[in-house]
C-alpha cells in the first residue's frame, strides 16, 4: 500500500537526521545554520531544502543504479563537507544575506555527497519494493521534516542567546563552528579510506 510505504520511509528519513547515529548530518545542519539568526527563518528553510534536493538527487540516481560510489570514500567525504562548511563560517567577516549566498551552493553540492551516504542501504530496501516512488518521496519528506525540526531547535536557542545573554553573534558563530570543525575533523581522520 502506498500510504504504508510512505509512512515507513518517512520514518527512515526522519531518523536519518534525528537519531543518535546521525551526528554527521546534525553537525552539517548546525554548521550551515550557525551563521543565521531567528530573523532569517525563510532563508534557512530554503537552505535546508537545497540540501534535501542535493541529497535526494544522488539517492535517486543511486537507487536507480545510475551512479555508485565506494562507501568508504563517501563516509570520508561526508565529514570533509562539514569541515569545509565550518571553516567557511570561521573566516566569514560579515553575515549579510548577500555574503552568505555561497551557503546555498554548499548545501546543494554537499547534499549530493551526503545523499550517497545512505544510498547503499536504502537501495536494497527500495529495489525489493514495488512502490519506489512512494518510498523515495516518503524518505525525502521525512528527511526535510527532520531538518526543519533541527532548524527550529537551533533558531530557538539563538533566540534565547541573542535576547537574554550578552553573547554576540560573532562569538556564537565562532564557538559553534570551532566545535563542529573539531568533531568533523576527528570523524574525517578516523575515516581516511587508504
Strand/helix succession: HHHHHHH
Helix content: over 70%
Low-confidence stretches: none
Strand content: under 5%
Helical/strand content category: mainly alpha
| SS elements, strand count | 0
Helix count, per DSSP? 7
Mean pLDDT: 88
Whole-Å distance between the termini? Answer: 44 Å
What is the molecular shape? globular
Largest sheet, in brief, is: none
**Which value, in Å, is the CA radius of gyration?**
17 Å
Detailed description of the structure:
The chain is an all-alpha fold and 194 residues long. It is built from 7 helices and no strands. α2 (23-33) packs parallel to α4 and α4 runs antiparallel to α5 (102-128).
Summarize the structure.
By secondary structure, the protein is mostly helical. Helix content is 79%, strand content 0%. The protein contains seven helices and no strands.
Task: Note the topology.
Layout: H1 2-18, H2 23-33, H3 41-63, H4 71-90, H5 102-128, H6 132-164, H7 169-190
Key structural traits:
mainly alpha, 7 helices, 79% helix
Amino acid at each position: 500500500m502506498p500510504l504504508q510505504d510512505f509512512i515507513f520511509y518517512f520514518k527512515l528519513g526522519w531518523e536519518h537526521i534525528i537519531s543518535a547515529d546521525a551526528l554527521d548530518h546534525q553537525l552539517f545542519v548546525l554548521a550551515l545554520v550557525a551563521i543565521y539568526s531567528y530573523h532569517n527563518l525563510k532563508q534557512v528553510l530554503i537552505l535546508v531544502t537545497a540540501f534535501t534536493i542535493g541529497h535526494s538527487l544522488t539517492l535517486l540516481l543511486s537507487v536507480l543504479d545510475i551512479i555508485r560510489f565506494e562507501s568508504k570514500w563517501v563516509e570520508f567525504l561526508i565529514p570533509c563537507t562539514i569541515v569545509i562548511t565550518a571553516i567557511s563560517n570561521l573566516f566569514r567577516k560579515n553575515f549579510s544575506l548577500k555574503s552568505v549566498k555561497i551557503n546555498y551552493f554548499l548545501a546543494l553540492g554537499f547534499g549530493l555527497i551526503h545523499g550517497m551516504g545512505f544510498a547503499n542501504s536504502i537501495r536494497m530496501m527500495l529495489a525489493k519494493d514495488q512502490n519506489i516512488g512512494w518510498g523515495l518521496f516518503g524518505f525525502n519528506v521525512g528527511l526535510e521534516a527532520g531538518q526543519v525540526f533541527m532548524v527550529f531547535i537551533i533558531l530557538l536557542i539563538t533566540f534565547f542567546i541573542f535576547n537574554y545573554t550578552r553573547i554576540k553573534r560573532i562569538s556564537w558563530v565562532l564557538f559553534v563552528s570551532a566545535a563542529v570543525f573539531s568533531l568533523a575533523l576527528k570523524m574525517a581522520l578516523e575515516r581516511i579510506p587508504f
